[in-house]
Design a protein that fits this description.
Hypothetical protein af1432, two-stranded antiparallel ribbon, globular
Length: about 450
C-alpha cells in the first residue's frame, strides 16, 4: 500500500484538491494546521514552566515544532535503514509526519496538566475533558476550514493523531468520579487522582472516530480499539498506528531531552541531582556511542557528558543535540502480527538500552520540575482560575458567552461541551485576563476582546 492510497488520503467532506493545486494531500494538511487558530494559540500555552517569567524556555508551540522535527528525524532514520520495500513505502513523507508532530498537542488547555484536570472536573457529568480527545475534536469539528468537519484533514493524518483509539464510554472506569479533596475545608481543592481523565476520544465525536477507522476490517478495528482494564484506574488502549507511534516516540524524546535542557539551564536540576538519577551504568551504551564521535574532541566519557550538560550554554546545546541524535538512532520497528492493515502492523519503538535511559530522563523531569513546589503553586492557581471561569460562564451562558457561541450553546445536545471548547481554547494569558475581568473589581473594559 503506497502512502498516497486513495482511501487514506480521502477527506470526510469528500472534497478533492483543485485542479491547479500542485500540493499533495499531506502538504494541504500541513498548511491547514500551520494556518489554524488552534496552532497559533500554542504560543501562549504552558509546556511545563509558566509562561511570561522568562523568554528562554519552551511553550507548547516550540515543543510541538521540536516534536515535528524529531519525528521527521526518525522517519529519515527509518528511510535510511535496510527496510523491505513493502515496509519502506509506509514510512510517512515529511509533510505527513510533520503535520502529526505539529498537531499532537493542539487540543491541550491553558495551564498544562493542571488545566486538563480542572476541565475534566468541570465536565465530570458531561462526557469528560482530555487533551488528546480535544485535539481530534478541534481538527475534525471546530476549526474553520470547512462548515462541518473542522480542518477536514485526510484520513491517514487523522489516524496518526488518534493516540488513544477508543471512546470514553469504553475506556472510563465508572467507579472513578472526578471530585474534590476531602481534606479541604474553606477552599475547594481538586483531588488530582480522581480528576485524571480516561485517555480516549469523546463520545460526542463518534462520527469522526468512526470515519477515521472506516477503512479497517471489522477484525482490525476490534483489535485496534482493544482496551486493557486496570484495577482502580481507567482502561488503557493497546495500540497506535505507525505514524502515531513515530510521533509518540518523538514526543518522548522532546520531553525527556529538550525539557531536561530547560530544567538545567534554569536551575531546577543540579549536577548532583542529575548524577544521582542518571548513573554511569545507565549511560554505558550512550557513552560507547559518544566515544566514536567525542564531544569537542574530548574522550567521550560519562564525565564529559555531565561537564557539557552543566557547562556553558554552547557546550550544553552540543550535548543535547548528541542526545537527540542518539535516541533517534535507537528507534527501530516492531511488528504486530495481529492486523491485516499495514499501517497497524508496524510501529516505531525505542530500543533497549536507550529506552531505560530516556525513561530516567522523563522521571527526573517529573520529580524535580513538574512536581516541584515552584511549578505546582502556579498549576494550583491555574486550576482554580479555569474552574472559576468555566463555572461563571455556565451560571449564565447567554450573558457571558460571545453571542455566536451562546446560540450554539442553546442548540447543542451537550451544552457544557460548548463551554469546554471555549475555555480550553484560551491561552494562559487570555484565561488570566478573563478571570480578572470577571472577578477583579479594577480590571476589565467594554473594549476587551472576548
Amino acid at each position: 500500500m503506497g502512502h498516497e492510497a486513495s482511501n487514506w488520503t480521502a477527506r470526510r467532506s469528500g472534497r478533492t484538491p483543485h485542479s491547479d493545486d500542485v500540493r499533495t494531500n499531506f502538504e494541504i494538511d500541513y498548511a491547514r494546521v500551520v494556518h489554524s487558530g488552534a496552532f497559533r494559540r500554542l504560543q501562549g500555552k504552558t509546556q511545563i514552566l509558566s509562561l511570561g517569567d522568562d523568554d528562554f524556555y519552551r511553550s507548547r508551540l516550540t515543543h510541538s515544532m521540536e516534536v515535528a522535527q524529531v519525528a521527521e528525524g526518525i522517519a529519515q532514520h527509518l528511510r535510511a535503514s535496510a527496510l523491505p520495500p513493502q515496509v519502506a513505502q509506509l514510512v510517512p513523507p515529511p509533510p505527513l509526519i510533520q503535520t502529526v508532530g505539529l498537531s499532537h498537542d493542539i487540543g491541550h488547555p491553558p495551564f498544562g496538566h493542571g488545566g486538563e484536570l480542572a476541565l475534566n472536573y468541570c465536565m465530570r457529568k458531561a462526557g469528560s475533558f482530555e487533551g488528546n480527545a480535544q485535539t481530534l475534536r478541534l481538527l475534525s469539528r471546530l476549526e474553520n476550514f470547512s462548515d462541518d468537519h473542522g480542518a477536514d484533514l485526510s484520513r491517514r493524518t487523522s489516524l496518526g493523531l488518534l493516540k488513544y483509539p477508543a471512546l470514553q464510554s469504553k475506556a472510563r472506569n465508572s467507579q472513578i468520579q472526578p471530585g474534590l479533596a476531602p481534606s479541604s475545608t474553606t477552599i475547594a481543592v481538586l483531588e488530582s487522582k480522581s480528576c485524571k481523565p480516561a485517555k480516549a476520544c469523546y463520545d460526542d465525536d463518534v462520527g469522526a472516530f468512526d470515519w477515521i477507522l472506516e477503512c479497517l476490517s471489522p477484525q482490525d478495528r476490534e483489535a485496534f480499539c482493544a482496551i486493557d482494564a486496570r484495577e482502580g484506574k481507567h482502561g488503557e488502549t493497546r495500540h497506535k498506528s505507525f505514524d502515531c507511534s513515530i510521533m509518540d516516540v518523538a514526543d518522548d524524546i522532546a520531553y525527556g531531552v529538550h525539557d531536561l535542557e530547560d530544567a538545567i539551564a534554569l536551575g531546577f536540576i543540579s549536577r548532583d541531582d542529575f548524577c544521582m538519577a542518571i548513573t554511569e551504568p545507565l549511560c554505558e551504551h550512550l557513552v560507547a556511542q559518544l566515544s566514536k564521535r567525542p564531544l569537542s574532541g574530548l574522550t567521550g566519557s560519562f564525565a564529559d557528558l555531565v561537564n557539557h550538560l552543566f557547562g556553558s550554554a554552547s557546550a550544553r546545546k552540543r550535548a543535547i543535540g548528541r542526545l537527540v541524535h542518539y535516541f533517534i538512532r535507537a528507534v527501530e520497528l516492531d511488528k504486530v502480527g495481529l492486523f491485516d492493515e499495514p499501517l497497524l502492523i508496524w510501529r516505531a519503538v525505542m530500543a533497549s538500552p536507550a529506552r531505560p535511559l530516556l525513561s530516567a530522563f522523563q522521571t527526573l523531569i517529573v520529580n524535580l520540575v513538574i512536581n516541584s513546589p515552584r511549578v505546582q503553586h502556579l498549576e494550583f492557581k491555574g486550576q482554580r482560575m479555569v474552574i472559576a471561569v468555566f463555572e461563571a460562564i455556565v451560571s449564565d451562558p447567554s450573558r457571558l458567552l460571545p453571542p455566536d457561541l451562546a446560540r450554539v450553546y442553546e442548540e447543542s445536545a451537550n451544552p457544557l461541551r460548548v463551554v469546554s471548547d471555549y475555555v480550553s481554547a484560551f491561552t494562559d494569558g487570555a484565561l488570566l485576563r478573563t478571570y480578572e475581568r470577571l472577578f477583579s473589581p479594577r480590571t476589565g473594559s467594554v473594549f476587551d476582546r472576548i
